[in-house]
Specification:
The chain is an alpha/beta fold. The chain has 17 helices and twelve strands. It binds pyridoxal-5'-phosphate (PLP).
Length: 434
């Protein structure tokens, strides 16, 4: 017996429609879905009038009407037409192959559900609250600083224990699952933040499927253009749309996609009760920005690869981590599940903490390209120092285990030309060593 009421139905559909050999969407199909057929207006409304008493009753029962999703047009915390448009687009970008396969099989029921949230953390907390009860356990890889701290708070407050382990070591995940029968899910990001280690989604999915527990993948670092975890066997996919999907650092938002019954009967309840609903304006903005996702991300990846190659040759740089560099320990694995290498680079500067701080201050200047800022995925490049910034809350010994050293620096590469960025990095690194 599975630990989840929705499991058996999902696994049947996952095998039929979701998991497949091809690792990513056809580029033209992807672009057509991203562009869509016209943005909706911004429904700047909190409540929607019903057509009749019967209409109101049916909406509260979660009945959908002429293409609307369940619970549409009641009250914006439960759903808003502008946000529902974005839901549809993100759903198509991650799941078009599932839609096509299900249609071919004349499937009547939806396979995957999607919710847009007011932040990436909103999507993460909704998913994990819907999944875990007190006393349950979770496996978690090296993840976003707030995901990490959320789980540490839950352990103290609700007795939900998280096994923070190196999930890129599939054997270790297997052993941890064998030894801990209360584990109800495996949660990963790939590439991991900020160490850019690559989790083997297919291998982890095979493993979690045996244990009848979901594999949850935070796909923020890749965006659906580079990586589509459902194809590889993931059960739940999360995005912080704040990053590549928005792409311009103009709003904070998230997306949660998962098995239909899980979404409808478990996640939706927390979504509406926690109140992680986005504003219609932010949904509209993201629906517009996602239209050119692939063009942006492709060029960001090209720029990042150039910069990674430059840094790898630099005499003042001791280590460069970029998934599509042959020196990356998971190069083969990355090639098997990612369309391109991504636009995130981590590297270690010789000279330790002091040199890292000097480099940060170089990029804090207004006459240098790149901003000294956290976040990622923007057309503007960002540079930051995880040990003192994004991952400062992670306990010291955990940071060491994860490989977040004092000299580790993370860059999110944007759309400034790579030559400009390389020249600035070279100047900044040299100044940091003066
Ligand atoms: C930013 C980020 C989050 C959190 O998203 P917010 O939109 O800031 O709430 C989660 N996961 C990853 C990988 C992120 O980069």
């Amino acid at each position: 017996m599975s630990k989840f009421a929705w499991w058996d139905k999902w696994i049947e559909k996952k095998k039929k429609y979701a998991k497949c050999d091809s690792i990513f969407a056809d580029e033209d199909v992807f672009n057509a879905k991203a562009v869509g057929t016209g943005l909706p207006p911004i429904y700047q409304k909190s409540t929607f009038n019903f057509q009749s008493a019967e209409d109101g009753k049916l909406r509260f029962l979660g009945k959908s009407k002429s293409g609307e999703r369940p619970y549409a047009r009641i009250y914006t915390r439960l759903g808003n037409p502008t946000t529902e448009y974005l839901e549809k687009v993100i759903f198509q970008l991650e799941c078009q192959h599932i839609i096509d396969n299900a249609l071919d099989a004349d499937e009547k029921e939806p396979t995957i559900g999607v919710l847009i949230t007011s932040s990436g953390m909103g999507a993460i907390s909704t998913a994990l609250m819907a999944l875990l009860d007190s006393g349950d356990e979770l496996i978690c890889g090296t993840v976003y600083g707030c995901t990490d701290s959320l789980l540490r708070h839950w352990e103290k407050k609700y007795g939900i224990k998280t096994h923070f382990i190196d999930t890129t070591d599939t054997e270790l995940v297997k052993k941890t699952l064998e030894e801990n029968p209360k584990i109800k899910g495996v949660y990963v990001e790939t590439p991991e933040n900020p160490t850019l280690k690559v989790n083997d989604i297919r291998a982890l999915a095979d493993l979690t499927e045996k244990y009848e527990i979901p594999l949850i993948v935070d796909n923020t670092f890749c965006s659906p253009y580079i990586q589509q975890p459902f194809r590889l066997g993931a059960d739940i996919v999360i995005h912080s749309t704040t990053k590549y999907i928005n792409g311009h650092s103009t709003s904070v938002g998230g997306a949660l996609l998962g098995p239909w019954e899980f979404m409808l009967n478990y996640a939706f309840g927390f979504y509406k009760d926690l109140g992680v609903t986005p504003s219609p304006f932010d949904s509209w903005l993201n629906a517009q920005n996602v239209q050119d996702l692939s063009v942006r991300v492709k060029q960001q990846c090209i720029n990042a690869f150039e910069i990674a190659k430059f840094l790898e040759k630099h005499e003042l740089v001791s280590k460069v981590i970029y998934p599509f560099l042959e020196s990356h320990p998971h190069y083969e694995r990355a090639k098997k599940q990612m369309r391109m290498g991504g636009a995130m680079i981590s590297f270690e500067l010789k000279g330790g903490y002091d040199a890292a701080v000097k480099l940060m201050n170089y990029f804090a200047r207004h006459d240098t390209p790149m901003e000294l800022a956290v976040s990622l995925g923007s057309v503007i490049s960002y540079i930051q120092h995880p040990a003192s910034m994004t991952h400062s809350e992670v306990p010291k010994e955990e940071k060491e285990r994860m490989g977040i050293t004092e000299e580790l620096i993370r860059i999110s590469v944007g759309l400034e030309g790579s030559r400009i960025l390389i020249e600035a990095l070279d100047e900044g690194i040299k100044l940091a060593h003066k």
